[in-house]
Amino acid sequence: MRKFLQAVNSKKLEIPVGISVLIMIAAIITINIAVIMADPSSFKTSFKLMTDSKLLLLLNVFPSALMIIFVFSATNNALFSSALTGAVFIIGSVVNREKVVLRQDPFIPSDLSLFSEAFGIVKNFPPDKLIIYSFIIAVFLAVLVITFLFFKTKKIRISIRVIIAAITVLLSAVLNFTAYSSDSLYDSFPVEGNIYFDVNQYSSKGFVYSFIYKLNSMRIEKPAGYSNSYFIAAEEDYEIEQYGSEEVPHIIMVMGEAFSDLSENSHFDFSHYTDPMENFKRLASSENAVSGHIVVPNFGGGTSNTEFDVLTGYPTKFLVKDGISYNYIRTSLDAIPSRLLQTGYSTLAIHPGFSWFYNRSNVYPYMGFENFIHLSSFQGEEKYKGGYIADKYAIDSIIENFQSHIENSDNPLFEFCVTIENHGPYDEKYNEVDKMFDCDVELTQSQETLLNSYFMGIKDNDYEIGRLADYLSELDEPVILVFFGDHLPGFSNGMEFFELLDYNINPNGSIEEQMNVYSTPFLIWENDAAAEHTNFAEKIENAALPENNRLSANYLGTLTLELAGIDNISPFYDYSNELRRKMPVITDSSVMFSDCKYANEIDDSFKADINLLIQWSYYKVFDS
Questions:
Q1: Is 531 part of a structural domain of the chain?
Q2: What is the phi-psi region of residue 220: left when phi exceeds 0, alpha when psi lies from -120 to 50, beta otherwise?
Q3: Quick one: 534 and 449 in the same domain?
Q4: What are the φ/ψ torsions at residue 271 (nearest 5 degrees)?
Q5: With the C-alpha atoms ordered 130, 133, 136, 141, is the resulting torsion angle positive or negative?
Q6: How far apart are CA 540 and CA 528, in angstroms?
Q7: Which of 132, 202, 267, 413 has a 20 to 30 A CA-CA distance from 211?
Q8: DSSP letters for 220-252
Q9: Please, what is the angle between helix 571-582 and helix 553-563, to 10°?
Q10: What gap in Å lies between CA 446 and CA 101, rounded to an integer?
């Protein structure tokens, strides 16, 4: 091997220093043009936005220039440094484009920790797209190998290269801790569209600058005015209530992948087909049920953030500016499963996907789940539909494990399941797609196929929830069933369907329209045994839900405990339910009050209430 490398090195084509400098300058220009071209918005728009400000343009160019210079100083190879930098920046920009198209959410630094999850999603891309991207990666790899093995720049003294490398590292550090971490500088640049929509931020300010800014802004910081003394005192003297199986109902929570009520649209006609939400509506109309919408942390993705909000009561958006909340859970967490475990419940989590997806194999035990059933328990090709385990088998697992539990244990059970069949992308998801609806808006064949695929998944999920409720209806055991969607679907055509079909959904619109971007249905239903046991009608009245039954996702779990009659198990849950009565929806940019009025500016007393929620949540997740 050594002889081979020596032979290769002796045959390397030597490039003069002056030519090498020109190569690197050309590479910097080419790389940045390619990055702008990859932006989901038009090249003309992106280029104009960045060239309108020389500083903004430089902030996007500096990182690639500094990387090229640093790699060059380390390898003395202008072509290789240009190729490596190009591969990093261009592939990153293409990943950003695909994520925006698929989920209407940009590529952020924490996504790098989700490589396995991303690879699992990419495998379901259409074959032609997979071939194109595989070819691009292969070309980059070939270029890297060729430029490294067969080219070099005319030798520059090592001392000069060390000085260049040191200056590059120092300049990079200074820029990172000043310009690239400055909130005021980032916010000073204009944004085309709604400033709270990160896609607009990236498109207006450039992928490179925005990505590196996020790298700094995503650091966890203490809330303003934070002190843990109040929370320590509140927890110290609190006595947790103990419950037996005769006192409280079993609780089954099911989170449906991309479940929504998008089918409820005047342009669709399901009269000759099956209504995708037939069972949801049937159960919601029961006297033992309440339904509405939760406002979740993400659009088109971020499933685990909705899980986190519901299972803990802590609002992700106030704790983690960007990224996945589960990435920050590294030790035992005070959550609803762990609290229920302390009161006498048994706890079980089910997810028919890989155990490592969103780090659930580590996080679920931290949250208090005694057992976790995942993909390894769902073996057999016949169980897959649309690339994922069909919802039928997820619900089968819920029923089988519940039945086994009540036959072998006297403890009440808290069972949580995440379905996965309706995961995107929806283009060419199924080999064969049923016609699901008629529509009075003209759709292209690809648009109709995409919607049919999506509604097929909704119908399957809805049918299985109906089947689960029918099973529970026959039991003498009191059971509360909670069902909700994790986020709206991220269609490959972006927001096109929402505009085309006149949905009241707009990331650049009114406060209500913005909240609708993040709203999914929820249902809390009790079987007759539970409704009698908990006095459901009285509990609903006392819960004082807003007229439109809209809630932040972080309230759903604590509301469920209140309706189940599970009181006095956490001072934080008591506060959460108290705050819900004042402000049923709280986001990082706006609120909805109990009278269903929206606002993005509130008085100091309400700010104090929200700050207490934020600080308490920070204490529980990062400081307790």
A1: yes
A2: beta
A3: yes
A4: -60, -25
A5: negative
A6: 15
A7: 132
A8: --PPTT--SHHHHHHHHTPPPP---TTTS-EEE
A9: 110
A10: 15
Closest to 618 measured CA to CA, from 407, 325, 404:
325
- As for how many domains the chain has, the answer is 2
pLDDT at 256: 98
List C-alpha distances in Å: 222 to 320, 573, 576.
Answer: 11, 21, 20
Residue numbers of the chain with a pLDDT score lower than 50: none
Q: Is residue 235 a part of any domain in this protein?
A: no
Q: Report the alpha-carbon angle 333-335-341, nearest 5.
A: 105
CB within 8 Å of 428: residues ≥ 6 apart: 126, 449
Tokens of 416: 């949580």
pLDDT tens readout for residues 376-395 = 999 999 999 999 999 999 99
Pairing of β 151-153 and β 13-15: parallel
C-alpha span between 89 and 207 (Å, rounded): 9
Span between the terminal Cα atoms of the chain, in Å:
55
- Residue 276: which CATH number? 3.40.720.10
State whether 264 and 201 are in the same domain.
no
Q: Which domain holds residue 593?
A: 253-426+436-623
pLDDT tens column, 393-429: 999 999 999 999 999 999 999 999 999 999 988 988 8
Q: Are residues 368 and 494 in the same domain?
A: yes
Residue range 457-467, pLDDT digits in tens: 999 999 999 99
Final residue belonging to a domain, choices 217, 235, 270: 217
